[in-house]
Amino acid sequence: MTKITAVTRVAFTAAMVLLATGLVAPAQQSASWPVMYFDEQPGVCFYLFQDEAHWQRHVFSVERHATADYVTPPAALEISFPDIDGPAGWMQLDINQTIPREEGRAAIPSGAKGVTFAFKGDGSSGAARIELREYYRAPDSAVEIPLSDDSWRLVTLSWDDFSPAPPLELVHSMAFGLAEGSPRPAHYKIDAVTFVSDTAMRTVPQEAVEAANARTDEPRIPPRPSPASLVYNRGGLSRARARLRKGEPMKWLVYGDSVTVPVQLWPIPPHLRAEYSYYAVAAERLMSEFGSEIDISVNAVGSRRLNRDFEGLLEAIRTERPDVLIMLSNDTVPNYQRLLPRVVRTAEEVGTEILIIVPTYEQAGFASPAFDWLRRWAIENNIACADARRYLLAGDEAYWGDVIANPNHPNPLGHRLIADVVAEMFR
């Protein structure tokens, strides 16, 4: 088992996590009905679903996946419920974070009469349960939809369909779960969720539904590039790689922000979360392959940039004297230019090799000037570099929800993918 020591760690409250996401006040509501971003940015809805799930035998009680079996391209959302004991779990969408609205107004537009979306069951005898939820209040208003129809169809729910009647001014989220007593495993798919001012409205043409049901080709999600194509300057870790091959022990100092803490793994029991971080997963793989023991010290603070407590990083390098400093750090180009050479000098003083991970935050945009600069700088200065960003966010944005918990944080699968390119650097 990897030994992980928290050199610097902060406790995250719910409010701090929201701040760390970089989400800001919603834009003002437009004259036309705002829609959930399934149409314009499908991935946004996928990663803003928060896992209200329990953990059992290393499996979540509810899971979400982007699927190429869609009504509106490029993807739909599949919600699945593995056959494990206990409650089935929920996927919860915070409407405030997804629907443009005027600050201070209710999440649901005042003129909305209901919600419409495409729905596809799994052919089983169970039912989906959809709730409109209030902040810390009960009971929640719910409606159930049978899963017996395994073809795509349009579903429109008026507020009168929910029981008890929802207090619309207090509703903050829509939750997708499984009706009590439904058999598991079970799954269903949803697409093109939209508020409507008239429940007779059809925001998705019937022709699109019929085309989806007539589609016979196998849905395929675009493949990722190989991790080997996204690692640079392996020679920058020559001493560490030699130690691994000899089966000698090694020490890593992992420096970063909330991704490295890590946050957004909350459904995993607290005492197990560190084991599912990218650095722990990579270390376990390498120890299994080479037999070397890896001791990990973690220096991580939520929302921290490289220029925050920078002297503390240099002191940690001198004190910990790691074989490898692994950095996943967000900052601006000027700060990278000013501070990274000092990191290199300090590491050289104590014989530490450096591995830079290109950060994975989605909200910064795929082609971020700062991260592009960081990649080029590492390559030009013969610093080992793992481009986790291009690996994690490969393919269409619609599929990012499989690996991203919210715009700034990978989910457990995302951490495993970052581990792919980290471990590849040492092979």
How do the strands and helices of this protein lay out in sequence?
Layout: E1 3-8, H1 14-20, H2 42-48, E2 49-52, E3 55-56, E4 59-60, E5 63-67, E6 76-81, E7 90-94, E8 114-120, E9 127-134, E10 141-146, E11 153-158, E12 171-178, E13 186-196, H3 206-214, E14 231-232, H4 238-246, E15 250-256, H5 278-290, E16 294-300, H6 310-320, E17 324-328, H7 333-350, E18 353-357, H8 369-380, E19 384-386, H9 388-392, E20 404-406, E21 409-410, H10 412-425
Parallel strand pairs: 1-16, 15-16, 15-17, 17-18, 18-19
Antiparallel strand pairs: 2-7, 3-4, 5-6, 6-13, 7-12, 8-11, 8-13, 9-10, 9-12, 14-19, 20-21
Helix pairs in contact: 5-10, 6-7
Structure description:
The structure is a single chain. By secondary structure, this protein is an alpha+beta fold. It has two domains: 184 residues, Jelly Rolls (Sandwich); 199 residues, Rossmann fold, CATH 3.40.50. The protein is 25% helix and 26% strand. It contains ten helices and 21 strands. It has a seven-stranded mixed β-sheet, with helices on both faces. A hairpin with a 2-residue loop joins strand 3 and strand 4. Helix 5 crosses helix 10 and helix 6 packs parallel to helix 7. The longest helix has 18 residues. It is elongated and about 70 Å long. The two termini are 20 Å apart. 44% of the residues are buried.
Q: What's the gist of this structure?
A:
Helix content is 25%, strand content 26%. It has 427 residues and is of the alpha+beta class. A hairpin with a 6-residue loop joins strand 9 (127-134) and strand 10 (141-146).
